[in-house]
From TrEMBL:
Family: Belongs to the inositol monophosphatase superfamily. CysQ family.
Gene that this sequence comes from: cysQ
GO molecular function, one term: 3'(2'),5'-bisphosphate nucleotidase activity
Primary role: Converts adenosine-3',5'-bisphosphate (PAP) to AMP.
UniProt: substrate binding residues: 72, 94-97, 226
PANTHER family per record: 3'(2'),5'-BISPHOSPHATE NUCLEOTIDASE 1
Subcellular location field: Cell inner membrane
Annotated protein name in UniProt: 3'(2'),5'-bisphosphate nucleotidase CysQ
EC code: 3.1.3.7
Taxon lineage: Bacteria, Pseudomonadati, Pseudomonadota, Gammaproteobacteria, Cellvibrionales
Keywords assigned by UniProt, alphabetized: Cell inner membrane, Cell membrane, Hydrolase, Magnesium, Membrane, Metal-binding
Protein species of origin: Microbulbifer harenosus
Residues noted as binding Mg(2+) 2 in the record, renumbered to the chain: 92, 95, 226
One Pfam family linked to the record: Inositol_P
C-alpha cells in the first residue's frame, strides 16, 4: 500500500472535523427542546449526530479516492465486504450523545484512518471548547486551541511516583463505574491516593495523550468508532490502548463492532500489567 499519511492530509481531516463540529453547535445552541430519538441498539441520536455525519461522509469520500467510510450513523456493510478493506475511514460524528443531551459540553467529533486493522491517523474535535486533538504515525500528536497549536505527548510515571504525586485516572460518567471503583481501590492499595475525573466521550483518551491523565480504564462496552480516532492520537503521543490481555486494540477483525474492555495507558514503560491485573 502506498503511503497516504501527510501533514496536509491531517490538516484537511482537521478542517472537515471542525466543520462537522460547527453543524453540531448549531443544534446545541438552538433554542427550544432538543429532539432525541432512540436507535435500534437503544442509544440516543439527535439531529446533531446526523448533521455531522452528513458533512463528514461526502468530504471524506472525496479525500482519498476509493477509500470507504464506516460511520456510526451510516449503513453498515456486511463483514464479508468490510473484511476486504485494508484501508478505510471510521467515524463517530458525535461521540458522547448522552453528554450532548445533558448539555455539559463533553462530546466529540471522531475521524480515524485504519490501515490493516491499525488506527494510523486520527482527529478528535471538541466543538464546545473549540479544541482539536490530532495525530498520525510518523507525524506525532498535536493539540489546537484558540492559543494556537502545540505538540503533545504522554507523561512519564516515574517522576510522579518518586515525588509521591497521585496518579490521575479518567473514567466514563455513564458506564462501568462499579468496575472502575474496584480497580481504583486496588491501585490505591499499591500506589496510595489516586485522582479520578469522570467525563463523557473520547475526550478521556485525549487527556491521556496530552499528559493530563495517566490511565483510562474502560471496563464497559464501546464500539470501534468510539475509540479509533483517539487511539491514533494516543499512540502518536507515545501511549498505548490495550485489551485485558494487554494486546493492542485492533479494528475490523470481527463481525461485531464491539470493542473488548480496554485500558488507555500513558507511559507504556511502567509495569501497568502487574498493577492492573495484579
Ligand atoms: N452497551 C453498549 N454497547 C456499545 N457501545 C456502548 C454501550 N454503552 C455505551 N456505549 C458507547 O459508549 C459511548 C459513550 O461513552 P462515555 O460514557 O465514555 O461517554 C457511546 O458513544 P455515542 O455517544 O457515540 O453513542 C456508545 O457508543
Ligand atoms: Mg460514540
Amino acid at each position: 500500500m502506498e503511503n497516504v499519511i501527510s501533514r496536509e492530509l491531517l490538516d484537511r481531516v482537521i478542517a472537515i472535523s471542525v466543520q462537522a463540529g460547527e453543524a453540531i453547535l448549531e443544534v446545541y445552541n438552538a433554542s427550544g427542546e432538543l429532539e432525541v430519538d432512540t436507535k435500534s441498539d437503544d442509544s440516543p441520536v439527535t439531529a446533531a449526530d446526523l448533521a455531522a455525519h452528513r458533512i463528514l461522509l461526502p468530504a471524506l469520500e472525496q479525500l482519498i479516492e476509493g477509500v470507504p467510510v464506516l460511520s456510526e450513523e451510516g449503513k453498515l456493510p456486511p463483514f464479508e465486504v468490510r473484511s476486504q478493506w485494508n484501508r478505510y475511514w471510521i467515524i463517530d460524528p458525535l461521540d458522547g450523545t448522552k453528554e450532548f443531551i445533558r448539555r455539559n459540553g463533553e462530546f466529540t467529533v471522531n475521524v480515524a484512518l485504519i490501515e490493516n486493522g491499525e488506527p494510523v491517523l486520527g482527529v478528535v474535535h471538541v466543538p464546545v471548547l473549540d479544541i482539536t486533538y490530532a495525530g498520525a504515525r510518523s507525524l506525532g500528536a498535536i493539540k489546537r486551541d484558540a492559543g494556537g497549536e502545540k505538540t503533545i505527548g504522554v507523561r512519564a510515571m516515574q517522576p510522579r511516583l518518586d515525588s509521591s504525586q497521585p496518579i490521575e485516572v479518567v473514567a466514563s460518567r455513564s458506564h462501568g463505574a462499579g468496575a472502575v471503583d474496584e480497580l481504583l481501590a486496588r491501585i490505591e492499595g499499591s500506589l496510595g491516593e489516586t485522582g479520578l475525573k469522570n467525563m463523557g466521550s473520547s475526550l478521556k483518551l485525549c487527556l491521556v495523550a496530552e499528559g493530563a491523565a495517566d490511565l483510562y480504564p474502560r471496563l464497559a462496552l464501546t464500539c470501534e468508532w468510539d475509540t479509533a480516532a483517539a487511539q491514533a492520537v494516543v499512540e502518536a503521543a507515545g501511549g498505548i490502548v490495550v485489551d485485558e490481555q494487554f494486546a493492542l486494540l485492533r479494528y475490523n477483525q470481527k463481525d461485531a463492532l464491539l470493542n473488548p474492555f480496554f485500558y488507555v495507558i500513558g507511559d507504556p514503560s511502567y509495569d501497568w500489567k502487574s498493577l492492573l491485573l495484579g
